[in-house]
Design brief:
The complex is a heterodimer of chains A (69) and B (172). Chain A has helices spanning 4-12, 17-24, 28-36, 43-53, 57-61, 64-68. By secondary structure, chain A is an all-alpha fold. The chains are: A mainly alpha (69), B mainly alpha (172).
Chain lengths: 69, 172
């Protein structure tokens, strides 16, 4: 499942995938895989991404629809 | 086993130990893979190991069927070939899952050019040598390096195209 929240939060900060990848010290392909839903990041990486983008874990990685189901 | 072979083997093991110790002490950031890459490399290693086991099993069963040792060029060369094939599988899977280069040490043109030159030199050595059995070692290693470099090139092209389409989708 695509992580559109991450994509929009990144766009809101005017950051490219490359910029975000450098900020959290991972490869651009890893950020791309997270956005495409191909890879589930560890909690450490999630926190690092949230810190850089200035949002909470709930904002980016919590899907209420999924948990209700 | 000759004395010089023994010295060479010990020197090889010692040099690898020294390199590993230096890498651990300096904690070189350039050599650190990210978590997705580590997971991808695990899968790649598994693929390489399975290839190795399957190749060895095939050779073993063939030897039983023909009731004599399977020899290609010289005894032992087949084992080297199997190791090269397994390593190739590991490297190819790593390349195509974007886990061959670390985030802090991306693929550089200088490195690719150097490796291509080394590969071509190995192939030229294969053509130049007439009788020596080890000319086939040059052929195997040269092809191994050139194949990896070709894959790096193909992957770079695929990533470039994927990057372009991604930019277009972001613009929409």
């Amino acid at each position: 499942m695509k992580n559109l929240k991450l994509k929009s939060a990144r766009a809101l900060k005017d950051m490219s995938q490359e910029d975000l990848a450098k900020a959290v010290n991972v490869s651009r392909q890893t950020i791309n895989a997270i956005e495409k839903g191909d890879y589930n990041p560890t909690i450490n990486l999630c926190i690092a991404i949230c810190k850089v983008l200035g949002v909470t874990l709930n904002d980016l990685f919590w899907n209420p629809e999924e948990t209700e189901a | 086993m000759s004395f010089t072979f023994g010295i060479g083997a010990v020197a090889g093991v010692l040099s690898v130990m020294v390199v590993v110790l230096i890498m651990k002490k300096t904690k070189n950031k350039k050599c650190e893979y990210d978590e997705r890459q580590i997971a991808a490399r695990r899968t790649a290693f598994k693929a390489g190991f399975i290839t190795f086991v399957l190749c060895e099993l095939t050779v073993f069963l063939t030897e039983i069927a023909i009731e004599e040792p399977l020899v290609i060029i010289v005894p032992g060369f087949l084992s080297i070939l199997i190791i090269l094939i397994s390593a190739l599988v590991f490297v190819e899977v790593s390349i195509f899952s974007d886990a061959y280069f670390t985030p802090n040490n991306p693929c550089s043109k200088k490195w690719v050019i150097t490796m291509i030159i080394i590969g071509i030199i190995a192939i030229i050595q294969f053509i130049r040598q007439d009788e020596a059995w080890y000319k086939y070692m040059n052929l195997s290693c040269g092809s191994f390096i050139l194949l990896i470099m070709a894959s790096v090139g193909i992957k770079a092209l695929i990533s470039k195209r994927a990057g372009k389409s991604e930019e277009e989708s972001n613009d929409e």
